[in-house]
Specification:
With 216 residues, this protein is an alpha/beta fold. Helix 9 (175-179) links the parallel strand 4 and strand 5. 54% of the residues lie in helices and 10% in strands. The chain has helices spanning 8-16, 24-39, 51-63, 75-84, 86-95, 109-118, 124-132, 149-160, 175-179, 191-213, and strands at residues 44-47, 102-104, 138-142, 164-169, 182-185. It is globular. It has two domains: 2-64 and 99-213, 3-Layer(aba) Sandwich (Rossmann fold); 70-98. Strands 2-1-3-4-5 form a five-stranded parallel beta sheet, with helices on both faces.
Length: 216
């Protein structure tokens, strides 16, 4: 795919949102980091607050099931399920889809509230990165300001574990942009405008990853 640069999805992103040319290089770097991580059998963790929490779940939904392309299971795995139970295995084989392992860290209500209640609420994502994260994994840390304390803590833990940190922020330099290995700084400063630019970027990343791993 020539590192994603020639992807129709990347080209379409810049055509529809020409202002994102200012961070095109970082978008490609993020794609390359994600491709390398998934190729190595690693996983993606995603964290954000408020609307960015919804974005974290949105990203997870696009990667954990079919987005645009069909993602049929391998015949070998279908047979393995049928060997366990012929009827149930056949039904599973006709319904399940291949996935890129992704976890939205804001989705675990009981765990999150326990962390917030029993200790420092700002540790809600850092504790999960500490538990889930392994060397080679990626953390997408979403903060429109780049200053969200719970996101910064998570990014520090991820870096210490040997993970790659991809930041999604607004255009201003921030503590997150300094910590992250790659920071996509969209050319906006108001929170809702930043979020409006984050969505087409992560859609393009998800489409490019699907194109890479599930091309028919």
């Amino acid at each position: 795919m020539d590192n994603g640069i020639q992807s129709i999805y990347f080209q379409d992103l810049l055509k529809r949102y020409p202002e994102l040319n200012s961070c095109a290089g970082e978008i490609i770097q993020a794609y390359e980091a994600l491709e390398a991580s998934f190729s190595a059998g690693c996983k993606l963790l995603v964290a954000g607050n408020g609307g960015s929490a919804a974005d974290a779940q949105h990203i997870t939904g696009e990667l954990m099931k079919s987005f645009l392309k069909k993602r049929p299971l391998s015949p070998k795995f279908e047979k393995a399920m049928e060997d366990v139970d012929a009827e149930l295995g056949k039904e599973l084989g006709g319904c399940l889809q291949q996935a890129l392992p992704t976890i939205a860290l804001d989705s675990h209500t009981a765990l999150s509230t326990a962390i917030m209640n029993d200790g420092n609420p700002h540790m809600v994502f850092a504790q999960q990165v500490n538990g889930y994260g392994r060397k080679g994994d990626v953390l997408i840390a979403i903060s429109t300001s780049g200053r969200s304390r719970n996101i910064l803590y998570a990014a520090v833990v991820a870096k210490a574990k040997g993970m790659t940190v991809i930041g999604l922020t607004g255009e201003k330099e921030s503590r997150l942009s300094q910590i992250a290995d790659i920071c996509i700084k969209v050319p906006e400063t108001e929170c809702y405008k930043v979020q409006e630019r984050h969505l087409p970027i992560y859609h393009a990343l998800c489409l490019m990853l699907e194109e890479k791993f599930f091309n028919e």
